[in-house]
Amino acid sequence: MTVLFTDIRGFTAYSEVLPPHGVVHVLSRHFRDMGPPVTRFGGRIDNYMGDGLMALFGLDDDGQDVPLRAVQAALAMLEAMDGLKPYLETAYGRSFDMGIGSRSASCLNSSM
């Protein structure tokens, strides 16, 4: 299994200059754009945490190439973020960046 985390860099400062409906809209748009790369590479978004999300890879399959698929999803998410930036600049006069991290672990099932 591989867990992938994302976080919007500097989102607190970004959101302080927006009206509340603007914050909700930006987050909704961001999360909408991040979902397809996750699912395209076999992941599943497990949780949204403020301006971040957690996606799991390797839950519903044979586990082959799970870390690679998580990295491919992360790269596709960064590409999607680049596609979102012009909209944010036009609509709000500024954009933001996103950080992504992942951790892979083996789960052993043993019986005693």
Keywords summarizing the entry:
112 residues, alpha+beta, 4-stranded antiparallel β-sheet, 3 helices, 24% strand, elongated, disordered C terminus
Characterise the protein shown here.
This protein has 112 residues and is α+β, with helices and mostly antiparallel strands. Helices cover 48% and strands 24% of the residues. The chain has three helices and four strands, in the order βααββαβ. It has helices at 11-16, 20-40, 66-92, and strands spanning 2-8, 43-49, 52-57, 98-104. The protein has a four-stranded antiparallel beta sheet, with helices on one face. A hairpin with a 2-residue loop joins strand 2 (43-49) and strand 3 (52-57). Helix 2 (20-40) packs antiparallel against helix 3. The longest helix has 27 residues, at 66-92. It starts with a strand and ends in an 8-residue tail after the last strand. The model is unreliable at 108-112 (pLDDT under 50).
